[in-house]
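Onboarding guide, step 5: your first structure request.
Type a short instruction followed by the sequence, for example:

Predict the 3D structure of this protein.
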Amino acid sequence: MNSASFSPSAPASAPVPVYLAQCSSYENPELVSAIESVLLPQIQSVGGVSGKSILLKPNMLSWRKKDDPACVHPRMIVETARFFLKSGASRVAVMENPAVLPAPAILKMMGIADELKSMGVETANFSRYRQLENLPETVIYRNLEIASEFCDFDYTVDLAKAKTHAMMTLTLCVKNLFGFVNGNDRIAWHLAVGRNYDQFADMLLDLYQIIHPQFNLLDGIVCMEGNGPGNGTPTERHFIAGAVSSLALDRAISPLLGCASLPILERAEKRNLLPEAILCGDTPDIAPLTLPDEPSMELSKLHLGVGIPSFAQKLMHEHLLARPVVEVNQCVGCGVCVKMCPPKTLKLKDGKPCFDLPGCIRCFCCQEYCPQGAIYPRKTLLMKFFRSMESIFRG
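The system replies with structure tokens like these:
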């Protein structure tokens, strides 16, 4: 294995610089200048990329409309690839494994396939999935089968989109690595972890340790808020961020977007994986995103001054989980949600989704893949009550 080999997972003692740049649009030359300001320090930190091979892994969930905020913007993909070529890279490839269509098809729908080809940039769907060996000792899920194409490249670039996520609150750089898992296995992982979102976060952290992207960029020029990651509302935040550590970037950016903590960051801290981060560069004034309703809360984390027995926690947790609901006027009865439901408990009744809540694992795959944005998570009244009580007792 080359430069993409596994790196030590323990946090560095010195804070990791997270570079920020203001950027009001995806038009040149402003975009090119912003990408350079956050990417050049990362390239310099490894001594340059002259003669090196580069894999770009953008977030390309789907492409259902022009400038779809579910994906990294097409110009971000093109100009990032161009900058690596300009910096001397001998080979640049764009690879991803979107949920429905293959990556080359989405790039064509974006209108950049021919431009990438003319630049000599390869495009492909991930296809070689296998379990990797010699993993860091801190990896928990050692039987993960992931796209091994990154092993053929000197450097991997995590090119993420800043958007909300019904299950993980936000999709930033670490969450974007889930695309290295095979599509069928992604559904299986949702089913395997069920309602234990800490396990899902642990799996994402293991992906981060195995792949360990050397360069990270976050598209925050136009973000997604609300019903993310596929059907939220586009909202301008006018920034690009970059860092050599996916975790450091997530740690620095999530508070700016209105999320003081993420399940991924909480688990990383408990596993002693979370590095310190320091913001550098042109820091814009970023307004918080409208976050989705939290999918769950752990009663054991509440500080109400009273002890809650474990059996009561389990019972109450069942009634605290956010639930998927459908906006019937938006639903067209296409059945995509039924197809993507990991436990196969979701059915169509009279042409509309009918949720089996006792069997629902709250993975929100139905919400993520609904092409009409008709499904969204709704916080229960009991959960709202306990959140209010928690706020009162915490002052």
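Each response can be followed by summary notes, for example: The chain is about 30% helix and 20% strand.
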